[in-house]
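Researcher: Next sequence.
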Amino acid sequence: MTEARESAGPHALRAPGTPCWVSLMARGLTATEEFYGALFGWEFRPGPRQLGPYVRALLDGHEVAGMGQLPPDHRLPIAWTPYLATDDVDRTADAVRLCGGTVAVGPLDADEAGRLAIAADPCGAVFGIWQGLVRLGTPVTGVPGTPAWNELLTFETESVTKFYASVFGYETDPAADAGADYVTLRVDGRPVAGLQGLGRALPRDRGPYWATCFHVADTDEALRRVTALGGRVVRPAHDGPHGRAGTVADPEGAVFSVVQEPR
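Model: Next structure:
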């Protein structure tokens, strides 16, 4: 098992631009808790009241993700959403608007933990903005059941790279391979997220979106478990430079990936 490491949770104070939380808005919150609890071993406790029906997922007592329930009249896609850290969520929300994005929710306070907003880049990909106020507890990463990576899947990276660099101050590192449309976003030289241009391969009915990948101990077993729990396999298990990965969807259609680190 990969050694547990201190990481970002909803309360953590992180360098601006660093992914610090992932959250899922679902239609059936109870059934969604059952699915992810069985898949990742998560337990749940109530989250901030301002977010409506919302729970925080815990792994061995540490917060690793959040889940909320969409109001019945909302027709938004069911999707995992990464939150990017900021020192000032109001100022970052203003920057999003000035750079051509939109702010759909907030900024608003989330109990004593911090302040948040939900925004979209100029191409429509949704992401969260999180300003942590205090650190409560010690979340972990690098172990099965924790987020591993966040990646934007979009039509092309050139214009959207400028947006994220302007809003969050990222250093950008384009792929060296000829023909590859991929950019790594860095904070203080450290890779924190990726942007991948898919061109016509991006589903038109979905549009650009941020994808979340979770660590698992065994990718093949995780895919079998997803199917047994009512989800489906979107992309079968395959070996890559960062380990054995696969892409799945939960019973409500939220797409995410899992990865088993090389042994």
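Model: The mean pLDDT is 88. The two ends are 9 Å apart (CA to CA).
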